[in-house]
Design a protein that fits this description.
Blueprint: H1 2-23, E1 32-35, E2 39-45, E3 49-55, E4 71-76, E5 82-84, E6 89-92, E7 96-105, E8 111-122, E9 129-130, E10 135-140, E11 145-152, E12 164-168, E13 175-180, E14 183-188, E15 192-200, E16 203-216, E17 220-224, E18 228-230, E19 233-234, E20 241-244, E21 250-252, E22 257-260, E23 264-272, E24 275-284, H2 286-301, E25 303-304, E26 314-315, H3 317-326, H4 341-350, E27 354-356, H5 361-365, E28 374-377, E29 390-402, E30 408-414, E31 427-429
Parallel strand pairs: 1-3, 2-8, 10-16, 17-24, 25-26
Antiparallel strand pairs: 3-6, 4-7, 5-6, 7-8, 9-11, 11-14, 12-15, 13-14, 15-16, 16-19, 18-22, 20-23, 21-22, 23-24, 27-31, 28-29, 28-31, 29-30
Amino acid sequence: MRQRFKILAVAVGMLFILLAAHSKTEAAVKDIQVISQSWSTVDVMAGDTGMLRPQTEDLKDFLGQPVQIASWVYSSNDPSVVAVDGNGCYQALRIGSGEVIIQGYSSSGLLLFSATCTIQVSVDMSGVTLEKNSLTGYLCGESQFSERIQILSSYVLGEENSEFTYSSTNPDMSVGCSLKDNMLIIESGSEGKTVLSVTINGKAFEIPVTITRLEISKRSYVGAKGKSFQLKIKGTREKVVWSSSNSKVVKMAGNGIVRLRRNGNAVITAEVAGHKLGCAVSVISPRLLKVVKRAKYIGANWKYSQPRRMQDGYYDCSALVWKSYSRIGKKLGMANYAPVAADLAKWCKKHGKVLTKSYTRQNIQKMKFRPGDLMFETGQDNGRYKGIYHVEMFVGYAVAYYDENGKPVLNELWAARPEGCYGGGHLMERP
């Protein structure tokens, strides 16, 4: 029996020690005694609560008679630091200093008691640690690097209740840091290495940060049926999982090898280290591929000149289209000279080549167009067919990035204009 009692006593003692140790990190209840005509200072921890208790036992009027307080008024000069209610119950909300004024009145409204209590609020950071002391991660496409580090603290730390600063040792690297609900949220829009110095309520932490940019070797590819090419991921040695949005058009053969099976469009997606990268692939006939390659070459290497548009080394918008299709013996509109853009459109319409009335962002995302299609800008009062004044050749798609739902966002490519130019709303025709 005595042995059982000893065991029970030891267990109770251990429980008491554990509870006592735990209570050191938890918010405490701390009442504050207040004396009339005094100005006192009290130190508490953020999260502490308690009662402001005015001492009235020895309180007397000017005749030396005991006084009776009929009502009390409590007010804080900064309720965001120290809040107090009408019953004198205070709560320390965040680090800082708050002055609480305590006033007591007689039933006739005479001020009988007045005192000020300065409550200094701090946070016990002695046991606060970080879940991890360094960060490594990746940037991908247009996405931002964003990572969270859990702060191991019983008191919930945030910028609204703490003194918080941070700095980075690498001025060439854009790094941001915020503090919310016991989380350090670290973000960056650039790759590199830095050491992030974070100070929370006087306690300093140093966090080495390494961010690497992930890149895919190609974001766009146009080829002919039966051909293949290889995609590679730069910036990591982690395992890559490849997939095709349409394996009937484009099939992955492993290790980044892409096989072009039949005409159409598809997106190849690489999943690695929690990120997605992609390549938009268009499979077209060998003859049309010659047209597209010629158009891209002219747009990248020749000079724009309307007066010299038909000479080698020079082009304008309609001459580029005409010269490119002439590569396969297909003369659009005229046998020996490039017609203007409006006449090109008119020729396409006459020969039943209309693809769609306008191109839209939705149709780009659905990959409705084929490299070699033509886009005509309309709307000018020039007396020409549909007021057309300009033509561009569509030469493929490029994966810009992946959205929050993990779907690829595509940009359109042009022979002689930047990626994503125009944005839709014009006539599209297929010669």
